[in-house]
Write a structure and sequence with these properties.
Strands 1-2 form a two-stranded antiparallel sheet. It is globular, with a radius of gyration of 23 Å. Helix 3 packs across helix 8, helix 10 crosses helix 16 and helix 15 crosses helix 16. The chain is mainly α. The longest helix is centred in the first third of the chain and has 14 residues. The protein has two domains: about 170 residues, Cytochrome Bc1 Complex, Chain D, domain 2 (Orthogonal Bundle); about 170 residues, Cytochrome Bc1 Complex, Chain D, domain 2 (Orthogonal Bundle). Helix content is about 40%, strand content about 0%. The protein has 18 helices and two strands. Bound molecules: heme C (2 copies).
Length: about 425
């Protein structure tokens, strides 16, 4: 994918400026009762700034191209049969359109696969918000047992056996051979290029009043007013990145389908939940898995709402197939799950959700708004992944070079012969 020129220079600065702008212009009227329940300031919807990048991993075209190749290369998973791109398929909204994602061969995942479009702007990744950067997220994905199930040394050895990667990693990172840590940097860079600054919403917010239809403008007013979506879905990516339990119902797959039940139970076990909860809890405890605080049970990160039209079904286990169903859910004031209904002595449902009394016309307007702000589909021609080659001759390496590429054990053994 060709990067627009303006993405390259001084990204961090422009992002900070946009955030400042957004927070200076805080939404005016608010229901006083609501301010008590949730006193934080809700930044208004704002145009998407250029993607930010950490100082030690600036965006360059060459790194994004390398990251794109790695994103679609199955060498980066356990049995080399699937890639990031299989669960984040450009034709499926850069996600996966089953309610619950496919998993590593022989497994299914336990949650809905999220789009990677516009993830550059998030500081908490996953439904549970448990990865704090794209650089940290990528290895979790490719090593996780029900996702990539890859092993560090094996994935790295495969890259080191591929002439294309030896050349590109050399040019970009200055290493003799590819290092896995650099691969995650490249993948993160590629993901940052999948951001969409030019949607009808961005144009509308920049002053082009024709950019949204009259129906969508009505939807926007409801979103910011009567329907109160703005309370949680705010700012440029339409998320406050906080956690709430909305009472999203349990996915039937977890009880009725063996492979799903196995994954759910394994995840709970691997995340170290208390034995009693392991036996009794049947819903996704979300933030609880990170904090182990029962008040957090069933809370998930507010989902970003750009690119929605391509990413059905919705919610953490794809509980709703259509945006109409999502709006009906909110119109009823959310739902119930075992962390809201008292079955384990917990009533964690957010008090922010209340029945909305929306008319049919209002519901349709909200759907039209969410559809129209999704922007153009990001289409993509899949690359041909690079083939393996013959291993490079390492005998002439100095000790320092060998250390850098992790070959010191090999050289020591060779020296003893
Ligand atoms: C087997 C399917 C699968 C594979 C392979 C996979 N993912 Fe994912 N991805 C998912 C699922 C499912 C989620 C949501 C998981 C969760 O929240 O626990 C997810 C979440 C994410 C997110 C978080 C998005 C957000 O809004 O927070 C990013 C970013 C991401 N994946 C990138 C990648 C990258 C990069 C790779 C390859 C290195 C990859 N994924 C490989 C299924 C997969
Ligand atoms: C109290 C905070 C809050 C409010 C208010 C709220 N949401 Fe959400 N929204 C969330 C959270 C949290 C999630 C993820 C929930 C989950 O998967 O369990 C979410 C998920 C969604 C999703 C699914 C996105 C996806 O990628 O699957 C849509 C669509 C959505 N919300 C739209 C809306 C609309 C429209 C409104 C107003 C009628 C609204 N939300 C009000 C917090 C909120």
């Amino acid at each position: 994918m060709k990067l627009p020129k303006q993405i390259l220079p001084s990204l961090a600065l422009s992002f900070a400026a946009a955030l400042l702008l957004a927070s200076a212009n805080v939404a005016a009227e608010r229901d006083p009762a609501l301010s008590k329940i949730d006193p934080d300031v809700d930044p208004p919807l704002a145009p998407l700034p250029l993607p930010p990048a950490p100082p030690d991993n600036p965006i360059t075209q060459a790194k994004a191209d390398l990251g794109m190749m790695l994103f679609f290369d199955p060498k980066m998973t356990g049995d080399a049969s699937l890639s990031c791109g299989d669960c984040h398929d450009p034709k499926q909204g850069w996600g996966f359109n089953d309610p619950i994602s496919r998993g590593y061969p022989g497994t299914v995942h336990w949650r809905n696969s999220q789009t990677v479009v516009n993830t550059a702007y998030l500081s908490k990744l996953f439904w549970q918000g448990n990865a704090k950067s794209l650089e940290a997220q990528a290895p979790i994905a490719n090593k996780g047992a029900v996702a990539g199930n890859g092993e560090d040394d094996v994935m790295e050895a495969r890259l080191r056996q591929t002439p294309y990667y030896i050349e590109k990693f050399g040019e970009i990172f200055g290493t003799m051979q590819p290092n896995l840590g650099d691969a995650w940097m490249a993948i993160a860079t590629f993901e940052r290029t999948l951001s969409q600054q030019d949607t009808p919403l961005d144009r509308y917010l920049a002053g082009d009043t024709e950019a949204l239809s009259a129906q969508a403008v009505m939807g926007k007013q409801l979103f910011e007013g009567k329907a109160n979506c703005i309370e949680c879905h705010n700012g440029p990516v339409l998320t406050d990145e906080k956690y709430y339990n909305l009472g999203v119902p349990r996915p039937f797959e977890w009880e009725e389908m063996g492979l799903n039940t196995i994954t759910f139970r394994w995840e709970a076990y691997a995340k170290g939940v208390h034995e009693k909860y392991y036996r009794e809890w049947k819903d996704d405890a979300g933030l609880y898995y990170s904090t182990k605080r029962s008040v957090d049970a069933g809370k998930h990160r507010t989902a970003p709402l750009r690119y929605l039209v391509y990413t059905a079904p919705y919610m953490h286990a794809g509980q709703f197939y259509t945006l109409e169903e999502v709006i009906d859910f909110y119109n009823e004031g959310g739902g119930e799950n075992e962390f809201t209904d008292g079955s384990h002595g917990l009533e964690n449902k957010t008090p922010i959700l209340k029945p909305l009394n929306l008319t049919d016309e209002e519901k349709e307007a909200l759907v039209a708004f969410l559809e129209e702000i999704s922007g153009e589909e990001i289409r993509f021609k899949l690359p041909e992944v690079p083939p393996y080659g013959v291993a490079p001759d390492v005998s002439g390496l100095t000790q320092a070079q060998a250390k850098r590429i992790g070959l010191e054990t090999y050289l020591a053994a060779a020296g003893q012969q």
